[in-house]
Please model this.
Amino acid sequence: MKSVALYNLGCKVNSYELDVIQQILQEKGYKIVPFDEKADIYIVNTCTVTNIADRKSRQILHRARKNNPAAVVVAVGCYVQSGNRVSEDSAVDLVIGNSQKQHLLSILEAYLDGQGSGEEKDGSDYDKSVALTRTASHTRAYIKIQDGCNQFCSYCIIPYVRGRVKSRRMMEIIDEAEGLVVNGYQEIVLTGIHISSYGTDADAPEEKAGLLTLIERLQEIPGLKRIRLGSLEPRIISPEFAARIAKLDKVCPHFHLSLQSGCDATLKRMNRNYTTAEYFQKIGLLRKAYADRKLALTTDIIVGFPGETDTEFEETAHFLRKVSFSEMHIFKYSIRNGTKAAEMPEQMSEKCKKQRSEKLIALNRIMTQEYRESFRGEEVQILIEESKEIAGSRYFTGYTGEYVKAAIAAGDSENIQALLQKGALIRGRVKDNLTTEILLVSDVLEANCGN
Model:
């Protein structure tokens, strides 16, 4: 039995894909070992989103070679696609591009049998089959519905290394979701590089109908309790989209709308193709459609983008307060060679980026806490994921539909213990904050323990 060590770098999509690769390897009898142990095969799922990511990818590949000079070292993913001539690196034996990840096992075994070329990269015609599913627990599963991006933001290399949008067949997604429900999963998360573009590349009428139609089809699956969406582009939100999706009770009231900057001048340099006024209007459509329900609105922000003046930064901070997000992910701009932003003048110093990042992180802390406080006394539904000890007591924890972590005391009652099994959907009332990040729920009102 050959041993395999795996290492992931980069985004959630990379993580999902590597989990599936691990599952395939295990099913075929390979032994998975920790990366820092001696292994027969090392697989590194690389990232190229920034120059730092490139360097980290190289370092991990060389660490693998150092762990076992006789091992087969496999470089997979975006760094492979970025023109870095990875196949010339003496630390690497086998190079596999993004669209070939699904064929990794056959490529690897052909190489081990002396039949492989050592390099299997993507060509201009990307493989349309992007079916990869990752299960986070026996309660939630991730389904990758598309790959690639056509947006070409000035700071992003992803369209060059992942290629153009390629959507998965809708019936394949439906069939996979139905299979997951049969196996006990109650929540599915739709993920991809740019899921708002789902179907835009399609010829068949079904896929061409787009993301909203896919969600409506998933809504019809018996036994499926929740549908959660990955990151969306604000342009997908229209009056029709907001009205139709608000009618789907299985869709979690949690929308992650990527913003990146709250300043129009910065957005223009980023090539984001919308203004803050347009973004705010999209937020308004969602809030109006969900006026009778609690709604979570989260986003991503890049600070220290080239040319960002103090005034532009303050415009961003003001806009973020105006929207009042439930949570923000703050990133310091990092140069990526090969992008237009890397060539822009007025690159910000690391000190400036750090200071601005800290200010927005502090603002996020305030807004997040205000959002959590708004749940006090409210009814919530929690999908139970695990039992854990917190501050010396045993609790069952999971997430609300708004993706806020919550906990219910395990208690001594066998009946409560039975209700709060892993995978149960519990409806209860928020009593207080158990910690700064976890709501405390009491008064269990309803429990649904799945199929």
In short: The chain is about 35% helix and 25% strand.
